[in-house]
Amino acid sequence: MMFLKGRVFPYQSPIASALLFALIVAATPLQAVFAAQTGLIAPSTNVNSGWQNPQNAYASDNNRAIADNNADIVQYGGFSFPTTTGVINGIELVVEGYTTGRTSLSSVGRPQEQISLSWNGGTNYTSGTAGVKTTSLPLNRETTQTFGGSRDAWGRTWTPEELANLRVKLATRGATGGKLYVDQIRVRIHYTPRITTQTVITSHTPDPSTTNQAYTVNVTVTPASGSTRPSGSVTVTDGTSSCTDTTASNGASSTSAFSCALTSTTAGTKTLTATFTSTNAFTGSSGTASHTVTAAPPPPPSSETFSKGMVSITFDDGTKSVYNAIAARNLLQGLPSTQYVYSIPMYGAALCNGACYTEYMSTADVQNLAAAGHEIASHTRGHRNLSTLSGTDSLFETNGSRLDFIGEFPSLAVTSLAYPYGGFNSAVKQQLQAAGYSGGRTVDIIGADGRPILNKPSTDRFALFSGQVTGTSPVTPNDPLPTGWNPEFGTIQSWIDDAVNNKQWLILTLHEVKDDCGADAYCVTPAKLTQIVNYLKSKGSSIDVVTVGQGLSRMNSAPTSDGAAPVVTVPQTVNNTITTKATSSSGAAVTFTPVVTDSNSGLNALCVLPAIQEEFVFPSGEASGIQLPKVVTSGYTFPTGSTSVRCSASDVGGKVGTYTFTVTVTP
User: Fold this and answer.
1) Each residue of 474-500: pLDDT tens digit?
2) Cβ pair 363, 346 in contact under 8 A
3) Quick one: DSSP state of residue 165?
4) SS3 at position 235
5) Residue 57: which of 36, 70, 37, 72 has the closest Cα?
6) Sign, CA torsion 291/293/294/296
7) How many CB atoms lie within 10 A of CB 149?
8) pLDDT (tens digit, 9 = 90+) per residue, 203-239?
9) pTM, whole model, 2 decimals?
10) Rounded distance, CA 159 to CA 15, Å?
């Protein structure tokens, strides 16, 4: 005969038996085929209230834990379950024990135990019909009773992580004179092991991304076997930022697809890690990929404010006293400055070797300041009022001075020019832009209301406001106001405070720095300069002390160089030559129109005759002693013979393009 689940079947043939076995297997749930269990595990700890020797229930050795009162409760824990992953299908509890009490068939007076399970170390317990089981141990005869089972989860859904905190509570009920003896309790966990998965980051676009730009990370999770798709969530992190997708979509075959938008806040090569957390019968897994994040360009400034206030310290003329104050006496205490130098005295100081132009910096002095982090900018060649010049004189002063500095110091960009005497007009501003400058600085700062005007991102970059600091300019509120000084105009400290509070740009203009200024109204003492520097440094990070070039780069529509030198051509040349006949004894007027091609539109070229040197004469009529190549423009009368012409143009980055051609005038 065959026995199956308590039923008896008469003898059947082998074929019938095989068919019956096949039917049984077919009727068994698929999950049971892969089911696993921990084995019966005894407790090792207890929390007791009323039981006698509760530890005796740890092992089946005829030493018993005893309860004899309805208030007796014990909680057993410390079940050292083996590592369990997967779906918890059921919890099986085995109690070995018996009761004493009345000897009649009635169970009245014989204690029994209400059994419940905790998943969080005793804070909460299962409840209700499914969550509370009651023993029915026999009288005076030890037996083993089983509660729960392979498919009984005691009325709740368990996670493998909760098993470490499992407790079994035995609460005595019905004790009226009898006792309950427990020799041992054990617990067995029934579970379906999880199927392993593989997590792969399939794409992350755009790559590269920029800081604070969202990019989409696509992830697939594929099971090692079976046709069921993993469900759960995927979290992607770059080590700092993260994103999560909890809604899987169907990928190929049994693959689940996830996607989320990640935003990295710092630049660099990021290792993206995608971590899958399962909510069904699958293991978690993770995958990695490399993603590049580049620094985002700074946001364009607003028309009214910068990101913080700025101050520029500028010095005009390139005097030796300023060089000594900075290089020898360190009066700027490491702060940067912009030096507006006019080039003819600089050349003179170098050529005379100290015998003339002694009050001006030499080329070596200028180079030293540039190497120390100070900006070198133009104050023209000969310090003439640009608003009174035109033609070759304007080109000589603007293009000429910029090319002088770039030629002497090839690493310099020479981004701005300070107008001598503050003289400029619309034509001068246009000429500066054509010469490759990024800006021009005035000596204007007083507004119509008597208050100082500071520069904004929207200020005309070729008409930058600047406040002159003289020997009588008040630095602090306690300084006396000079004659004619409007109290509304404030002090240099209040100008700095305005720059901080309004997030605008203050440019200070100084000239000489001497211990004894004498009658020089534009000279300041080292003490006054130190006052200004100390106040700036006291502002700490609330303000940036910048060069004028740095300030210009933060303004709206700041021009930039593409890194390539301008290309200069002269369309009238053939094989780099213009040939014409003399029209008079002086030669011939020749038309030539240089064309400059560059990403900075509107550039012009300065054309000179390298073989013809002319001495510059200052507006006062004093000869400079410095000879420079003659500047020519279209229509210049070339003498009979061959004359070399060199045309040069520079972009905003200081890149210089040159074209040399020959003009031949035949008799």
Assistant:
1) 999 999 999 888 888 889 999 999 999
2) yes
3) G
4) strand
5) 72
6) positive
7) 14
8) 999 999 999 999 999 999 999 888 788 989 999 999 9
9) 0.59
10) 44
